[in-house]
Amino acid sequence: MSSSIIFKDRQDAGKKLALLLDNYKGTNAIVLALPRGGVIIGKEVAEALNLPLDIIVTRKIGAPGNEEYAIGAIDIHGNGVWNENERAYIDKRWLENKIKEEIREAERRWSTYRKGRGPLELKGKTVIIVDDGIATGLTMQAAVAYAKQTNAKEVVVAVPVASTESVGVLKEVVEVYVIETPVFFSAVGEWYEYFPQVSDQEVVSVLAS
Predict the structure, then answer these.
(1) Where in the chain is the domain with CATH 3.40.50.2020?
(2) Where are the alpha helices (DSSP H) in 29-76?
(3) Rounded distance between C-alpha atoms, residue 42 and residue 33, angstroms
Protein backbone atom coordinates (compact mmCIF):
# COMPACT_ATOMS: atom_id res chain seq x y z
CA MET A 1 0.00 0.00 0.00
CA SER A 2 1.36 3.42 -0.91
CA SER A 3 2.24 5.75 1.95
CA SER A 4 0.00 8.37 0.35
CA ILE A 5 -3.13 6.25 0.77
CA ILE A 6 -5.40 7.35 3.61
CA PHE A 7 -8.70 5.57 2.89
CA LYS A 8 -9.57 2.04 1.81
CA ASP A 9 -12.49 3.23 -0.31
CA ARG A 10 -15.29 5.80 -0.32
CA GLN A 11 -17.29 3.86 2.28
CA ASP A 12 -14.33 3.94 4.66
CA ALA A 13 -13.81 7.64 4.02
CA GLY A 14 -17.49 8.40 4.60
CA LYS A 15 -17.54 6.59 7.93
CA LYS A 16 -14.45 8.47 9.09
CA LEU A 17 -15.85 11.78 7.90
CA ALA A 18 -19.05 11.19 9.86
CA LEU A 19 -17.00 11.12 13.07
CA LEU A 20 -15.96 14.73 12.43
CA LEU A 21 -19.60 15.73 12.06
CA ASP A 22 -21.00 14.10 15.18
CA ASN A 23 -22.31 17.43 16.50
CA TYR A 24 -24.86 17.43 13.66
CA LYS A 25 -26.28 14.03 14.58
CA GLY A 26 -30.07 14.07 14.84
CA THR A 27 -30.32 17.81 14.09
CA ASN A 28 -32.33 19.48 11.31
CA ALA A 29 -29.32 19.29 8.99
CA ILE A 30 -29.45 17.84 5.48
CA VAL A 31 -26.56 16.08 3.72
CA LEU A 32 -26.17 17.20 0.10
CA ALA A 33 -23.81 15.05 -1.95
CA LEU A 34 -22.08 15.90 -5.23
CA PRO A 35 -22.63 13.06 -7.71
CA ARG A 36 -21.28 10.75 -8.46
CA GLY A 37 -18.53 9.79 -6.02
CA GLY A 38 -19.77 12.14 -3.33
CA VAL A 39 -23.03 10.21 -3.07
CA ILE A 40 -21.20 7.17 -1.67
CA ILE A 41 -19.60 9.43 0.95
CA GLY A 42 -22.94 11.11 1.61
CA LYS A 43 -24.71 7.82 2.24
CA GLU A 44 -22.27 6.87 4.99
CA VAL A 45 -22.44 10.32 6.58
CA ALA A 46 -26.24 10.55 6.44
CA GLU A 47 -26.73 7.07 7.90
CA ALA A 48 -24.24 7.63 10.72
CA LEU A 49 -25.78 10.97 11.67
CA ASN A 50 -29.40 9.96 11.10
CA LEU A 51 -29.89 12.75 8.55
CA PRO A 52 -31.67 12.91 5.18
CA LEU A 53 -29.58 12.65 2.02
CA ASP A 54 -30.07 14.56 -1.22
CA ILE A 55 -27.91 15.70 -4.12
CA ILE A 56 -26.58 18.97 -5.46
CA VAL A 57 -25.54 18.88 -9.12
CA THR A 58 -22.66 21.01 -10.35
CA ARG A 59 -20.43 20.51 -13.38
CA LYS A 60 -16.75 21.20 -13.86
CA ILE A 61 -15.73 23.19 -16.94
CA GLY A 62 -12.45 21.72 -18.16
CA ALA A 63 -9.94 23.56 -20.29
CA PRO A 64 -9.98 23.00 -24.07
CA GLY A 65 -7.86 19.95 -24.81
CA ASN A 66 -7.46 19.12 -21.12
CA GLU A 67 -10.81 18.28 -19.55
CA GLU A 68 -9.21 17.36 -16.22
CA TYR A 69 -7.87 20.88 -15.73
CA ALA A 70 -10.73 22.95 -14.31
CA ILE A 71 -11.16 26.54 -15.40
CA GLY A 72 -14.56 26.86 -13.76
CA ALA A 73 -17.71 25.14 -12.57
CA ILE A 74 -21.43 25.77 -12.95
CA ASP A 75 -24.63 24.83 -11.17
CA ILE A 76 -27.67 23.39 -12.91
CA HIS A 77 -28.85 26.91 -13.83
CA GLY A 78 -25.54 27.86 -15.44
CA ASN A 79 -24.34 30.14 -12.65
CA GLY A 80 -20.57 29.85 -12.58
CA VAL A 81 -17.43 30.14 -10.49
CA TRP A 82 -14.29 30.76 -12.52
CA ASN A 83 -10.54 30.87 -12.52
CA GLU A 84 -10.57 34.29 -14.14
CA ASN A 85 -6.89 34.15 -15.12
CA GLU A 86 -7.60 31.06 -17.22
CA ARG A 87 -11.02 32.17 -18.45
CA ALA A 88 -9.54 35.29 -20.04
CA TYR A 89 -7.70 33.16 -22.60
CA ILE A 90 -10.63 30.91 -23.54
CA ASP A 91 -12.53 31.48 -26.80
CA LYS A 92 -15.91 32.95 -25.85
CA ARG A 93 -17.89 30.95 -28.40
CA TRP A 94 -16.27 27.71 -27.22
CA LEU A 95 -17.05 28.57 -23.61
CA GLU A 96 -20.68 29.42 -24.35
CA ASN A 97 -21.15 26.07 -26.09
CA LYS A 98 -19.35 24.23 -23.30
CA ILE A 99 -21.56 25.80 -20.65
CA LYS A 100 -24.69 24.80 -22.59
CA GLU A 101 -23.34 21.24 -22.90
CA GLU A 102 -22.65 20.97 -19.17
CA ILE A 103 -26.05 22.43 -18.25
CA ARG A 104 -27.66 19.69 -20.35
CA GLU A 105 -25.58 17.07 -18.55
CA ALA A 106 -26.47 18.56 -15.16
CA GLU A 107 -30.16 18.45 -16.08
CA ARG A 108 -29.80 14.85 -17.28
CA ARG A 109 -28.19 13.80 -14.02
CA TRP A 110 -30.76 15.67 -11.95
CA SER A 111 -33.61 13.93 -13.77
CA THR A 112 -31.93 10.51 -13.83
CA TYR A 113 -30.99 10.47 -10.16
CA ARG A 114 -34.21 11.89 -8.75
CA LYS A 115 -36.64 9.64 -10.64
CA GLY A 116 -39.40 12.21 -10.29
CA ARG A 117 -38.74 12.99 -6.62
CA GLY A 118 -38.62 16.66 -5.74
CA PRO A 119 -35.66 18.17 -3.88
CA LEU A 120 -35.65 18.46 -0.10
CA GLU A 121 -36.56 21.86 1.35
CA LEU A 122 -33.36 23.64 2.39
CA LYS A 123 -34.79 26.90 3.73
CA GLY A 124 -33.90 27.34 7.39
CA LYS A 125 -31.84 24.13 7.46
CA THR A 126 -28.17 23.44 7.98
CA VAL A 127 -26.76 22.07 4.72
CA ILE A 128 -23.72 19.78 4.81
CA ILE A 129 -22.22 19.52 1.31
CA VAL A 130 -20.05 16.43 0.86
CA ASP A 131 -17.81 15.01 -1.85
CA ASP A 132 -15.07 12.38 -2.02
CA GLY A 133 -12.39 15.08 -2.13
CA ILE A 134 -11.51 18.55 -3.38
CA ALA A 135 -8.71 19.41 -5.80
CA THR A 136 -9.15 22.92 -7.26
CA GLY A 137 -12.31 23.60 -5.27
CA LEU A 138 -14.20 25.23 -8.14
CA THR A 139 -16.93 22.57 -8.26
CA MET A 140 -17.45 22.82 -4.51
CA GLN A 141 -17.50 26.62 -4.68
CA ALA A 142 -20.31 26.39 -7.24
CA ALA A 143 -22.19 24.01 -4.95
CA VAL A 144 -21.78 26.35 -1.98
CA ALA A 145 -23.03 29.33 -4.00
CA TYR A 146 -26.07 27.32 -5.11
CA ALA A 147 -26.88 26.21 -1.55
CA LYS A 148 -26.59 29.74 -0.20
CA GLN A 149 -29.24 30.89 -2.70
CA THR A 150 -31.79 28.53 -1.11
CA ASN A 151 -31.95 30.52 2.14
CA ALA A 152 -30.39 27.69 4.09
CA LYS A 153 -29.67 28.61 7.70
CA GLU A 154 -26.06 27.47 7.44
CA VAL A 155 -23.87 25.88 4.77
CA VAL A 156 -20.86 23.75 5.68
CA VAL A 157 -18.51 21.65 3.56
CA ALA A 158 -17.26 18.21 4.58
CA VAL A 159 -14.77 16.06 2.66
CA PRO A 160 -12.28 13.33 3.52
CA VAL A 161 -9.34 14.95 1.73
CA ALA A 162 -8.64 18.29 0.05
CA SER A 163 -5.85 20.51 -1.18
CA THR A 164 -4.76 23.19 1.27
CA GLU A 165 -5.41 25.89 -1.33
CA SER A 166 -9.03 24.85 -1.90
CA VAL A 167 -9.74 24.68 1.83
CA GLY A 168 -8.29 28.15 2.32
CA VAL A 169 -10.61 29.63 -0.30
CA LEU A 170 -13.69 27.81 1.01
CA LYS A 171 -13.03 28.81 4.63
CA GLU A 172 -13.52 32.43 3.60
CA VAL A 173 -17.23 31.75 3.10
CA VAL A 174 -18.16 28.52 4.96
CA GLU A 175 -17.00 26.21 7.73
CA VAL A 176 -14.98 23.30 6.35
CA TYR A 177 -14.59 19.83 7.86
CA VAL A 178 -11.74 17.85 6.33
CA ILE A 179 -9.80 14.85 7.59
CA GLU A 180 -6.58 15.38 5.63
CA THR A 181 -5.04 18.27 3.69
CA PRO A 182 -1.86 16.79 2.18
CA VAL A 183 0.98 19.18 1.40
CA PHE A 184 1.50 17.62 -2.02
CA PHE A 185 -1.86 17.13 -3.71
CA SER A 186 -2.37 16.16 -7.34
CA ALA A 187 -5.57 14.09 -7.54
CA VAL A 188 -8.30 12.95 -5.15
CA GLY A 189 -8.04 9.30 -6.16
CA GLU A 190 -4.43 8.92 -5.07
CA TRP A 191 -5.52 9.05 -1.42
CA TYR A 192 -7.75 5.99 -1.81
CA GLU A 193 -6.69 2.36 -2.11
CA TYR A 194 -9.84 1.59 -4.15
CA PHE A 195 -11.35 4.47 -6.12
CA PRO A 196 -13.55 3.15 -8.94
CA GLN A 197 -15.83 5.20 -11.15
CA VAL A 198 -19.34 5.42 -9.70
CA SER A 199 -22.15 4.72 -12.15
CA ASP A 200 -25.45 6.55 -12.57
CA GLN A 201 -27.23 3.38 -11.43
CA GLU A 202 -25.24 3.28 -8.20
CA VAL A 203 -26.29 6.85 -7.45
CA VAL A 204 -29.93 6.02 -8.19
CA SER A 205 -29.77 2.98 -5.91
CA VAL A 206 -28.28 4.96 -3.02
CA LEU A 207 -30.86 7.73 -3.27
CA ALA A 208 -33.71 5.22 -3.50
CA SER A 209 -32.59 3.28 -0.42
Answers:
(1) 10-57+120-208
(2) 37-49
(3) 5
Structure confidence at residue 195 (pLDDT): 96
> Which residues of the chain form beta strands (DSSP E)?
30-33, 53-55, 58-63, 66-75, 80-82, 126-130, 154-161, 175-180
Task: Considering the chain, tell me which residue range(s) the CATH 3.30.1310 domain(s) occupy.
Answer: 60-112
Predicted confidence (pLDDT) at residue 209 exceeds the cutoff of 90 = no
Q: pTM for the full model?
A: 0.93
What is the third-level CATH fold of 10-57+120-208? Answer: Rossmann fold (3.40.50)
Q: Half-sphere exposure (CA, 13 Å, Cβ side) for 202?
A: 14
If you average pLDDT over residues 42-52, what whole number do you get?
A: 98
Residue type, position 3, single letter: S
| The total number of residues written for the chain in this structure | 209
Q: Does domain 60-112 have CATH number 3.40.50?
A: no
Contact by Cβ (8 Å): 39, 55: yes
Rounded Cα–Cα distance for residues 168 and 5 (Å): 23
Judge whether residue 83 has pLDDT over 80: yes
SS3 83: coil
Q: Count of alpha carbons within 13 Å of 5, Cβ hemisphere only?
A: 11
The torsion angles phi and psi of 40, rounded to 5 degrees, stand at: -65, -40
Q: Are the C-beta atoms of residues 159 and 135 closer than 8 Å to each other?
A: no
Which residue blocks in 30-158 are alpha helix, DSSP H?
37-49, 84-87, 92-114, 138-148
